[in-house]
Design goal:
The chain contains 11 helices and 10 strands. With 332 residues, it is α/β, with parallel strands linked by helices. The chain binds 5'-O-[(R)-(carboxyoxy)(hydroxy)phosphoryl]adenosine (KG4) and zinc ion (ZN).
Length: 332
């Protein structure tokens, strides 16, 4: 069984080809970051037009890397949501058209489920685990019982963790997206220099809030003693530490509450070096294995969409060609 998966939920045009026996055969991602950088964030209209021009070459590159012809594809999948409506509709419409033309099954896939299951790739069996999804659009803790069986433990009440990184990056005058830049600058900074709030750390639930932290950085900036590289690195490190502390503490609390024996961390922010280090230290101390996807599978990609599609195909579940995008699609 060979599946072609498309992902166009935001500003990455991606196509991947997966085989249930041979694993990942190709994963192509055309990033639009350089285009949106000029605006300091994603412009939906621009993203949509880029998907239109990028999708065909990205699919062709995936086919050629996999050494396959379109006729050899057995099913076509695409992200149906959540995401930007004008971006989602490009990938979903293309996938429906391809499935119809090839007379092959079509699958509409949930983007959050793609992230959530990416740490388990390429195993066809999912271990029960506590899932932490931390991306630009989402921050949620999920009890993963098995494929399709998820219980939402808690999520952010305002900004997603990645959104906080990007907004703080913008406040500090750093290029978009702020996450990877802050990660890099923070490596030489002092995480103890500025005492930022650890919001909702002691609420005893699994909800998050990052907008107060972003505001705290905003109020600090005019009061900084200088604008040196050292101070900038210290602000980045202190901000990052506050985000990481909350994510690690709540994840470990979720593991204890659910009795799960594994943590599966995913989404763009799971590329963060400090989060990876502190989460693995905490998991090791608790005797709990930590699963994190390869960096290439953490940020938006189509391989994670194809991985979910393969699970559906194994169960013979397909989507009707009448299924539509849902920008607010929920996981559960
Ligand atoms: O998963 P993703 O590509 O898209 C969404 O589904 O949102 O995540 C993108 C987010 C951005 O906010 C970006 O700043 C953040 O992931 N990100 C990072 C790092 N790499 C990407 N945040 C912190 N540290 C990083 N190294
Ligand atoms: Zn994503």
């Amino acid at each position: 069984m060979i599946v072609l998966a498309l992902e166009t939920s935001c500003d990455e045009t991606a196509a991947a080809i997966l085989c249930d026996e041979r694993g990942l055969l190709a994963s192509e991602v055309a990033s639009q970051i350089a285009i949106h950088q000029a605006y300091g964030g994603v412009v939906p209209e621009v993203a949509s037009r880029q998907h239109l021009t990028q999708l065909r070459p990205v699919v062709q590159a995936a086919l050629s890397h996999a050494g396959l012809r379109m006729e050899e594809i057995d099913a076509v999948a695409a992200t149906a949501g959540p995401g930007l409506a004008t971006s989602l509709m490009i990938g979903l419409s293309a996938a429906k058209g391809l499935a119809l033309g090839l007379k092959k099954p079509f699958l509409a896939i949930n983007h959050i489920e793609g992230h959530l299951l990416s740490p388990f790739f390429p195993s066809p069996c999912l271990i029960p685990a506590t899932g932490l999804v931390v991306s630009g659009g989402h921050t949620l803790l999920v009890d993963v019982e098995g494929f399709g069986s998820y219980r939402l433990l808690g999520q952010t009440r305002d900004d997603a963790a990645g959104e906080a990184f990007d907004k703080v990056g913008k406040l500090l005058g750093l290029p978009y997206p702020g996450g990877p830049v802050i990660d890099k600058l923070a490596r030489t900074g002092n995480p103890q220099r500025f005492d930022f709030p650890r919001s909702m750390l002691d609420t005893g639930d699994f909800a998050f809030s990052f907008s107060g932290l972003k505001t705290a950085v905003r109020y600090l900036i005019p009061k900084l003693p200088d604008r040196s590289d050292t101070t900038l690195a210290d602000v980045c490190a202190s901000f990052q530490e506050a985000v990481v502390d909350v994510l690690v503490a709540k994840t470990l609390a979720a593991v204890r509450a659910t009795g799960r024996k594994t943590v599966a961390m995913s989404g763009g922010v799971s590329c963060n070096s400090r989060l990876r280090a502190k989460m693995s230290q905490a998991c090791e101390a608790a005797g709990i294995p930590l699963l994190v996807a390869d960096a290439a599978l953490c940020t938006d990609n189509a391989a994670m969409i194809g991985f979910v599609a393969l699970h559906h195909l194994r169960q013979n579940t397909y989507s009707p060609l009448t299924s539509d995008i849902d920008p607010n699609l929920r996981l559960v």
